[in-house]
C-alpha cells in the first residue's frame, strides 16, 4: 500500500516579507521661514489730564451780575468772565449817584481770565450771592494737556525721558507721544510710578480718557519668524525644536531657542535654520528624527 505525505509551506522568506512592507509616511504641511524685523512691546493704560488748572474766585463780597462763559468754552487770557456788584453798591450805590453824579460810583467789579484754556467747571449763575474768595470757575490750561501712565517699577528700564511711544485711543485713532517726565515717587501699594506722556494732537481730547500706550522693549532686525505651531517642546518646556524638511520626503529634528513671541508667531534662534527653509507646521508632533513625510499638495 502506498502512503502519500502532503507538505504544506506557510509563508515565504521573512526578509522578503520585510522588504515588501512599505515604510510609514506621515502627511504634513510646511511653511517657509520668514526673515524680518521683530519688535517686542508692552502695553499699559494712561489717562488724559490737564496738569495746570486756574481757579477763578470772587474778589469781593456781592452779587453775580453777569456770566459771560459756559462750560466747555475756550477762553483767552484777559477775557472778561464775570461781573460782580458789591453788596455796598447794591445797598447805597443809587443814593450816592443821586447825591453826586460826578463820582460815577457803580461798584461793578470785572473778573477776567488769568490764562487761556477751557472752562471745565462753572460753580455759580447770575444773581448768586458771593463771598470774597468763592470759587466761580475752573480753567484747564490746554498747553498742560498730557497723558498720565502708571508704570510698574520693574519695567522702569524700558522708559526713558524723550523716548517715543504710541498711543491708541478708544475710537481706534493713533497718536505719537513722547515721555516728558517721571514723577519722583512710587505708590506704596501698587509700586507704580507716574509717567507724563506728551502728545501733539490736532483734535481736542477730553480729560479722563483712558488710552493704551505701546512701549518698545526690544527690536531684532532680520529675525527668523515661524508660526507658533511649528515650534515643539517637551513636557517641562525647557527644550524646543522644529522639524525641518531637507528634501521632498524627509524631515529632521533641529534644536532651537525662542526669542520674541507674539500671539501667533515666534522668533527662533539657530545656526542650522535660514530664511526660506521649509518647516513642518502640521503632522510634526511626535515625529522621530529623519522621519519620512509627504507634503500636502505634492
Explain the overall architecture:
- By secondary structure, the chain is mainly β.
- It has helices at 14-20, 87-99, and strands spanning 26-32, 34-50, 53-57, 62-67, 74-75, 80-86, 108-112, 117-122, 129-130, 135-140, 145-152, 164-168, 174-186, 192-199, 210-227, 232-233, 240-245, 250-261, 265-269, 278-282, 291-295.
- A 6-stranded antiparallel beta barrel has the order 2-11-14-13-12-15.
- The longest helix has 13 residues, at 87-99.
- The radius of gyration is 39 Å and the shape is rod-shaped.
- It starts with 13 loop residues before the first helix and ends with a strand.
How are the elements arranged and paired?
Elements: H1 14-20, E1 26-32, E2 34-50, E3 53-57, E4 62-67, E5 74-75, E6 80-86, H2 87-99, E7 108-112, E8 117-122, E9 129-130, E10 135-140, E11 145-152, E12 164-168, E13 174-186, E14 192-199, E15 210-227, E16 232-233, E17 240-245, E18 250-261, E19 265-269, E20 278-282, E21 291-295
Parallel strand pairs: 1-21
Antiparallel strand pairs: 1-20, 2-11, 2-15, 3-10, 4-6, 4-9, 5-8, 6-7, 8-10, 11-14, 12-13, 12-15, 13-14, 15-19, 16-17, 17-18, 18-19, 18-21
Briefly characterize the structure.
The protein is mainly beta.
List its salient traits.
single chain; 298 residues; mainly beta; 6-stranded antiparallel beta barrel; 4-stranded antiparallel β-sheet; rod-shaped
Q: What average pLDDT do the residues reach? A: 86
List low-pLDDT spans: 1-10
N→C terminal distance: 67 Å
Mind describing the biggest β-sheet?
Answer: 6 strands, antiparallel, barrel
- What's the alpha carbon Rg, rounded to whole Å? 39 Å
Number of strand elements: 21
Helix and strand sequence = HEEEEEEHEEEEEEEEEEEEEEE
User: Order of strands in the sheet with the most strands?
Assistant: 2-11-14-13-12-15
Classify the secondary structure makeup into a structural class: mainly beta
Beta content comes to over 45%
Inertia-based shape? rod-shaped
Helix content: under 10%
Please tally the helical runs, counting DSSP H or I stretches of 4 or more residues.
2
Amino acid at each position: 500500500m502506498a502512503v502519500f505525505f502532503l507538505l504544506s509551506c506557510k509563508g515565504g522568506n521573512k526578509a522578503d516579507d520585510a522588504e515588501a512592507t512599505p515604510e510609514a509616511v506621515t502627511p504634513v504641511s510646511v511653511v517657509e521661514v520668514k526673515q524680518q524685523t521683530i519688535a517686542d512691546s508692552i502695553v499699559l493704560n494712561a489717562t488724559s489730564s490737564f496738569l495746570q488748572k486756574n481757579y477763578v474766585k470772587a474778589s469781593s463780597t456781592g452779587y453775580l451780575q453777569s456770566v459771560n462763559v459756559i462750560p466747555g468754552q475756550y477762553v483767552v487770557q484777559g477775557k472778561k468772565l464775570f461781573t460782580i456788584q458789591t453788596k455796598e453798591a447794591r445797598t447805597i450805590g443809587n443814593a450816592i449817584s443821586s447825591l453826586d453824579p460826578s463820582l460815577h460810583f457803580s461798584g461793578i467789579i470785572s473778573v477776567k481770565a488769568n490764562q487761556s484754556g477751557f472752562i471745565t467747571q462753572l460753580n455759580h449763575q447770575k444773581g448768586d450771592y458771593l463771598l470774597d474768595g468763592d470759587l466761580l470757575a475752573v480753567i484747564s490750561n490746554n498747553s498742560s494737556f498730557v497723558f498720565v501712565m502708571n508704570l510698574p517699577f520693574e519695567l522702569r528700564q524700558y522708559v526713558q525721558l524723550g523716548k517715543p511711544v504710541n498711543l491708541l485711543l478708544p475710537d481706534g485713532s493713533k497718536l505719537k507721544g513722547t515721555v516728558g517726565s517721571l514723577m519722583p515717587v512710587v505708590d506704596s501699594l501698587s509700586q507704580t510710578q507716574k509717567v507724563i506722556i506728551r502728545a501733539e494732537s490736532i483734535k481736542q481730547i477730553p480729560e479722563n480718557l483712558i488710552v493704551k500706550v505701546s512701549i518698545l522693549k526690544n527690536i531684532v532686525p532680520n529675525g527668523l519668524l515661524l508660526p507658533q505651531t511649528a515650534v515643539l517642546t517637551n513636557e517641562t518646556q525647557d527644550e524646543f525644536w522644529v522639524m525641518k524638511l531637507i528634501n521632498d520626503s524627509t524631515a529632521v529634528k533641529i534644536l532651537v531657542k525662542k526669542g520674541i513671541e507674539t500671539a501667533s508667531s515666534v522668533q527662533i534662534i539657530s545656526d542650522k535654520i535660514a530664511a526660506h527653509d521649509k518647516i513642518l507646521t502640521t503632522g510634526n508632533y511626535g515625529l522621530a528624527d529623519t522621519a519620512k513625510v509627504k507634503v500636502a499638495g505634492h
